[in-house]
Amino acid sequence: MASLLLGSIGILYILSALTHTASSQQFNTVYRVCARGFFLSEQETCLPCNCKGHADSCEDITGICIECQDHTVGDFCEHCEDGFLPVLLPDGTFMCRPCACPISLESNNFADHCDKRGNFLRCVCQEGYAGHYCERCAPGFYGDAISAKDCRECQCDKCGTASCDDRTGVCHCKPGVTGHLCDRCEEGYSGFGSCMGCRRCECASAALRGTCHPLTHSCQCHSGAGGRYCERCLPGFWDYSTSGCKKCDCPEENCDMHTGECLPEASQISECNINCDACIWNLVGDIRQSNKTLDQVRNSVLNISTGAAANDRLKYYNYTAHRLQAQFVGWRSKYAVMRADTGHLEEETQKLLTDMELLAGEEESVQSLGERVDQETLDSSTLANTLIANLSSLNILIEDMIRDWELYGVHQELNPQVKLQKIAEAERILGWMRNLDLSPKEPLATDESSEAHELLRRVRHFEKTLMTTQGRLLPMREVLSRFTSRLFQAQDLLNKADDTLQQSLDKYKTNQLKLQRREAQQQRLKDIYDIVNQTIVTADEIISEANLTVLEVEDMITNVREQHAEIDGARVSLERKTEKMSQSDRELVLRAEDHADNLQRHAEELKYNLKGSDANGRVQKALNALNVYDNIVKNIDNANITGLTALNISSTTHADIDGLNAKLSLMRSQSDSVLTEASTLDYQQKDIVSTVLDNKKYIEETNEMMDSSSKKIAKILSDINAIHKDRTARRLQFTQEVAEGTLNRSAEVLQKVTPILKRVEEWDGNMKKEVYSAAAFDRTVLSAGEAVEDLSEIVPELLDKLRVVEEKKPVNNVSTNIIKIRELIAQARSVAKKVQVSMKFNGQSAVEVHPYSNLDELKAVTSISFYIRVDPDKDPIEDRFLLYLGDKQGRKDYMGLAIKNDNLVYVYNLGGEDVEIPLSSKPVSSWPPVFNLVKVERLGRHGKVFLTVPSQDTTAEQKFIQKGEGAGTDSMFDLDPKDNIFIVGGVPPDVKIPPALSLAPFVGCIELETLNSDIISLYNFKQLHRMDVAASMPCPRHKLAFSQSRVTSYLFDGSGFALVNNIERRGKIGIVTRFDIEVRTVANNGILFLMVNETNFFVLELKNGFLRLMYDFGFTNGPVIMESNLAKLQINDARYHEVSVIYHHSKKIILLVDRSHVKSMESERKPLPFSDIYIGGAPSSILLSRPELSSLVGLKGCVKGFQFQKKDFNLLEEPGTIGISSGCPEESFMSRTAYFTGEGYLGSTAKISPFQSFEGGLNFRTLQSNGLLFYHIDGLDEFSLSLENGAVVLQSKGTRVRSHKKNYNDGRTHFLVASVTDQKYELIIDDKDKLEKKKPASTSQSDNVPKTFYYGGSPTSSTQNFTGCISYAYISRQDRDIEPEDFQRYSENVQASLQDCPVERPPAALLNKESRESSRRSPGHSRKVGRDESSLPLGNPLDVPETEAAPCYLSSHPRVTRHAHRYGGSAHSRHEYTGVASVIRNESYFSLSLKTHSAFGLIFYLADESEENFMALFLTHGRLVFTFSSGKDQVRVRSKEKYSDGQWHDIIFIRSGNMGRLMIDGLTVLEDRASGGNISMLVQDPLYVGGVPPDQAKKNIQKTSVSSFSGCVRRLQLNGRWLTSASSSFGVTPCYEGPSEPGTYFTEEGGYVLLDDSFDFGSRFKLVMEVRPRVASGVLLHVFTGEKEYLTLYIYQSQVVVVVNNGIREFSTYVSPRQEICDGNWHKITVIRDGPAVHLDVDSEVSHVVASVSEPAQRSGAPVFIGGAPASMLSPSLLSRRGYTGCMRSVSVNESPVSFSDAALVSGAVGVGSCPAA
Predict the structure, then answer these.
(1) What's the whole-number mean pLDDT along residues 249-278?
(2) Cα(1592)–Cα(162) distance, rounded to whole angstroms?
(3) Measured in whole angstroms, how far is the alpha carbon of residue 777 from the centre of its chain?
(4) Host H or E run for residue 1740
(5) pTM, whole model, 2 decimals?
């Protein structure tokens, strides 16, 4: 027992020692623990977790949040889980809510992911769910996604199922398939495995019977047909039809089974393929199996019903990709900003910590002391705890030992001696323990314990202080952040204040100017007042002379009678002179005829020379043509001399008539002045006196007019007497006709003057008898005034008749010859331009080429290419001049080329310094002695020079390029049309060129190629200088040395043509006649080939890009036309297409494109009556010979080859070819010009960076004041170039640069350049209008990723698309040099034409008309209106035209479906058409396309007055019903399927006699007939579409379908013709695309809603409405009580105005909202009238006006108009009288909602119930 005790005690000591050692080691290491919500950083400091309040803790070092809550995910709980959407809270945090897909509940959230962009939510649905908001089951699933939430997969067999009902899961089988799951064929059907449905075995059309044999499943065929189902022709047969096939008419009895064309060798394949081996049979089997697979794929594609969902899903993926890209770019930019802000914050924090170091020093020392004390205290405490633990353990062990001992003592007998020893040892130990004295150590332990507690208290106090300091640090950072943001806000406010100050200064200057104008106007009014007083005095004097006037009237009557006699005498004299003139000689006639014959002879010589010329190098013939041209010029000069002689003969008459015109103008002005003065006096004097004065003035004017007429007629007679007698007979006859016309006009003058005489005599009698009245005199004065006006019209006509006498009119045969000569000269120039032959320059010669016709095309882009040959071995390379294009004095813009320092140097100047671009990579001395191709190009201020050197041994080429750019901002090449010259090789003596090109003339050979895209030649020279082309032989050029010419091809520019004579010399016209032509073009229209023989013709042409064939060989029914819009027929895509025309058996035409059959047509059997064929064009005389050919134009493009009967022709060697050239440069197929109609755009992608470093330029021409020119968007950042109110605007990230000028919509071509650098934005238009603005600092960097950009518009921008022409556009790309854009290569082309640009400048008269009209003062009296002038937003509306202040955020033209209209909303929404009833009496053929969700509604209705005869198309339960009746018998056709699915359906309904037929989507055909014979439809106009007026159609249509249907109709046609112009429209709008929202939409076309009588707009009412305008002006409400009693609410330039007239005065008030009324948001407007007071409230901004104390009685039932009103009911004092444009909703009157659907009338283009949302 004692030994056991001692062992236990030893164990206790060992455990105690170990515990003390471990405790000592543990207390030597201290761990830092941060509080909850903080984490330990690498600097061992505690930082707060950034978990957005959605996690309680985060990881140390990284700060990654642990266990994100509230459905958040991410390292920092910054995202929501899939299926949840973040919602921002007012405190800046966010919470995650379930996606509203379709409902924002977790149980109804079926989205894997959702995203919200703006106001639109996009859902990515779970499997089995579909729809924009996952609101329905996906195709292939069925159930209820909203209520039951149980979308399940359909169990139908996929191969036999057409569709599965998305509600019930019922399987809809394919044709011939049956079964609950559509899993088997019907009885008697087969082919389930094809997955295309089951079908009966049916034979093809050439079979004897329609069904197969029941056992063999094969068909018996007609003669010549074969195959299992008689589906093809047997070998040796062709022309498959229902009667079989025809035998080939070929020697070998072998032909093409489709075309009948004879094949060279007979085919060895028999009907049964007896000679085919097993390999062929296996191949046939594989092909059939492939056909089945293709059928299955086709069936799967056709059965796809997920079009909308898949499209939405694809759109969402596309959108998500763009969003992620934008977020990534935004994150990168934000990360850079955050890093900068963090660095700034760390600096501020460092400063703050530095300031705290002084306070922290003492704290650190105390803290270190405390830590030591704390450590020692912890050690002591640990030791104490260890000791206590040891003692406790020891006590436990002792107790255990005692218990053991007791147990042992009971159960075990011990040796008494051993027991005594153990007891003694235990007593000794206990005694030692009792004698142990610890009292000396107790005071020391007590002191240490108290000090430790004190230090611990101080340490905890300092710790609390430190925590408090750290807690204050975060708020301090937030304060610093807010302070920084407020500093930025203050900076913005200062900038705005600066702008406002500048605006105020501008307004101050404007007001100063207006004040000066008002003062000047006041002074003018004062002067006018003085003049009026003086006029009154003069009037008094005139009154005193009134009695003398009566006497003068009698004298005037006498004078009038005398003048009548003089006119009669003049008429007799004029007849005598005419008879004398007819006796003149005819000598001049004979001379003119001889001269005409001479001209005809020269014309024939020129025509002969032209036919003999060769455009491919025969220079001498071109020179002969030019010599003939010189002779023709001389002859024309002689003709001009003859014309001048005739002109001199008539010069006397011309001068005399000019004198008559001047006198007549003077008399008219004097008469107008007197009449104006008389009218002014009439308003100021008494009626009778004023009438007498007017009579006096009128008589005076009449007297003057008659005197003038007499003098003019006398002068005319004298002029006729003075005419020389050597006129030709034709001139005499013409003069005689004019004289007869003059006599007729004189008679008309007498007829007009006679009533005046009678009136004057009546006045005389009445005056003497004193029987007169004011009204009678007024009528008489008006009648006489009209007579004078008639005279004023007749006299100028009389003068015009005489003026024709002096005009030089060539004799008809001379005119005809001159026209022919001009045409031949044009052909000669065309030939000369295309002479591809060089000229040899000897160092002294020079050539002046004809200048370019359209210099505007050279302003933005100038390109010249030519071939040059030098021989360094014979002629050492020196500095020499090559070419120059500029003015003759070398002072303005120019460009040129020279050889300097052994380098080819390109020089140009655009108004600043010279730009020289030397091509140093290939010295001229190293050029081979052959022709090298040189091209120089200038695009804006950028220039390039190209050199192509051909290889002597191979077909390889060496290409060299050098580029440069001008230093300034000038970009346009301005040439003076009257002073420009293009010289090559040398400089003429009278021309001075710039010093940079003043070099020695060139030695060598040059051949010009192109100027821009036009072919040019040195032989189209204007003048030669020391150049003898006959003696100096040109250098030969190898035509195939360059790659662009190696393929034999011919270039047509629209002016020339090729003529192949006697085509049968290469092949005979036989049973099958074939023409082949291979064409490459981008043109819309042009002749491919044409054959003409008298009245017969045959033409293959391009029309609107499609092939069109027209021919007439004297057919009974006129020309045969083959045309279609098939895609295969469109060949203007800049690629080569092989077109073949086959004329078979003299009656059938077959058209092949790219060796594929496209179309065929038969006509009367007649042979081809032609021997010659024109290619690419024809002479104008040929085209004008028949009206069918008059609109044809020449081809612009390339022809690779032409074949007749498979025989080739070299078109350049044909004698009749004129104006074509060899080789097709690639530039001729590039589209540099685009025309936009306001509804389209061009789009492409490129590596561009418009926000960092960018330059772009373009030509534009338009008549529209607004339009988008260029657009790019990257995330939320936009870059655009646009026109706004005629000004050019550059916009980038909110910064706008606007041009000074605002009239760039003048129809002229303007060139703009926009550039972006790190410092500024710059905009330059026409090198004159230059603007720049400082660019804000930006940290974003450009990325090397292709970006999308648009020209002419955009699918997403709110700016109106451009209408006009854009050409020669360029942009700086990161992956290539600057060069003109080729629009042909753009991936997106939406309604943009790449051909001609039809924009024209308005005539000058039209441009000046507006200024003249504005300066002309309109007559009328001033109108006084009682009005509270102080409350008006602007001045007098008569002085200020109605204009728009600024465009609205939303476009006034939302995107619409073309040619479609929307009906519905109101019960009587409709269009009315007239002129229809008479056309459909016997039969009718109506067609339209329909889209609706309505189950009921009327679509079409036409009836007579009693509605006994009618025709209708309507919807009932979603099914279409077509019905008509002739009084007794009624036809009714009803569809089985429902068509109210919101998709477009094509509907045709036909009535022919008593038969009615309804065709839907070309698949469903329903028919019904009435009893009896044919019936006539005796109906009357109008035709109603969309609905009918009230109480109409109820007799024949069921009640539920009488109202208008809600939906869209497009392409309404009657008998194949469009019904476009409706006579009346009620509540019809265009069919808008995109999302919609509830409301009523008022379009820009105008319209209004007339409310019924149930609403009281008396002296007290309250009107509330919400509006979202798209135009900043328009009438919202008009209450019309009477002419002078009304209330009008309208918008004017973004201000809301209310005007009230109570019958006594007019009062108004207005509100200018803080937020723009036109900002695209909804605005609430409230109008409250309470007796005399009117309150106007707009978005809680209140204004009011007090009308009057006494209010008149209001009449009930006054008409109330919404959105506009008839113009006759609107007051002229309103600042805006146009109708409202935009959406309106929530309209209420006196707290009662207003339903526009129940309105009395919806007039015009007003859509009730739905508005376009964007």
Answers:
(1) 64
(2) 42
(3) 62
(4) none
(5) 0.41
